[in-house]
Amino acid sequence: MTHPRTVLIVGGGTAGSALAVLLRRAGIAVDLVEAKADWNATTGSGITLQGNALRVLREIGVWAQVSAHGFSSDGVTIVAPDGTEIFTQEDVRTGGDDLPATVGMQRPALQRILIEAVRASGTRIRLGCTIDTLTQDAAGADVSFTDGTAGRYDLVVAADGLNSRTRELIGVTDKPAPTGMAIWRAPAPRPASVTRTHLAYGGPAYIAGFCPTSETTVYAYLVEPNRDRASIDRAAYADEMRRLAEGYGGHWEEIRASITDPAQVNYTWFDRHLVEGAWHRGRVVLVGDAAHACPPTLAQGAAMSLEDAWVLADLLGSRATWDDGLLTAYRDRRMPRVRMVVDASVQIGQWQLDGVRDADVRGLMGRTLDTLKELP
């Protein structure tokens, strides 16, 4: 190429923002368009970041901010539905011994940290705007945007999430499928003695848990069979979550009392998604949830998206030729690892749906997390 390489990233979530920073560091010109005018900086309750996610965030240069705004821990406490502690299990440090096993944090805090990094990188950003039409030839892609502008790029990256419109525009027909489970989430004040994730299996929900997200907050969640969302009054979300939480004791009594604002409660179905064929068509490539997604039973969704960004940026920054071979290499490098995580995450939930009492959940989790210590 005789001109500076240009990349369009469609979507400014975890994968898109991380990729923008890494590509700019490699000297590649980046445009990022994000459909939401607020750049998703105010929505969401909490997120658990495993060590392999922290490893990529350190590479991006934001680990210090993540550490300062989140809550680090190295174990999970399993409790009975009444709150009685059964045992504490040390987590695998999938990012290496110099990073904690997990950091819980408020999702908007993570997004704001990534936004600041993208802005500082020199990425050209447009909010409240997304892709409208796309045509390709052998050398690049011509894109028109919803704000009436247009541009030409050497590569377009679809980082626009689980229901990616860009994926549809390029003819990839794989779509997410519900697993049969759903999750209620809400932020809450942190009980003073809660210093790690607590999980209860059984009771009114399949899983009842909470994870510290700062010195003062946790995010609480309850997993149940999925319901028709249209049948649940949005104004009653807090009432529904409190009702489901009534079967849990211990710290849940304090947490439950704080769930009063329906606007702070999120209800989401679990989906399984994995694009089985190529993750690109011509000059357009998928990353993050656009390519794969899984239930949060292993807390690996964000980690897999961040690893996608790291691997793709490494290939784009180190190879002289951007072609089908490069994009195929990206997919081939990611696929075995992503499939392992997606399948394991779904299997853990399926065991619960089927009522399998002797399932080897700890064994499956341990084997999967041990593998994730390896670099992607």
In short:
The protein is of the alpha+beta class and 376 residues long. It contains ten helices and 20 strands.
Our Rg estimate from Cα atoms comes to 21 Å
Shape descriptor = globular
Taken as a percent bin, the fraction of beta residues is 25-35%
Terminal CA distance reads: 28 Å
Question: What's the total number of strands?
Answer: 20
In sequence order, what are the helices and strands, one letter per element? EHEEHHEEEEHEEEEEHEEEEHHEEEEHHH
**Structural class, from helix and strand content?**
alpha+beta
Strand order of the largest sheet: 6-5-14-15-16-13-17-20
Helical content (DSSP H or I, runs of 4+): 25-40%
Can you tell me the residue ranges where pLDDT is under 50 for at least 5 consecutive residues?
Answer: none
Summed over residues and divided by their number, the pLDDT gives a mean of 96
Sketch the major β-sheet.
8 strands, mixed
Explain this structure.
The chain is of the alpha+beta class. Helices cover 34% and strands 28% of the residues. The protein contains 10 helices and 20 strands. It has helices at residues 14-25, 51-60, 63-69, 107-121, 165-169, 237-245, 252-258, 301-318, 324-354, 361-372, and strands at residues 6-10, 29-34, 46-50, 71-73, 75-79, 85-90, 102-106, 124-127, 131-136, 141-145, 150-153, 155-158, 177-189, 197-201, 207-212, 217-225, 266-274, 280-281, 284-286, 292-293. It has an 8-stranded mixed beta sheet with strand order 6-5-14-15-16-13-17-20. A 6-stranded mixed beta sheet has the order 8-2-1-12-19-18. A 3-stranded antiparallel beta sheet has the order 3-7-4. The protein is globular and about 65 Å long.
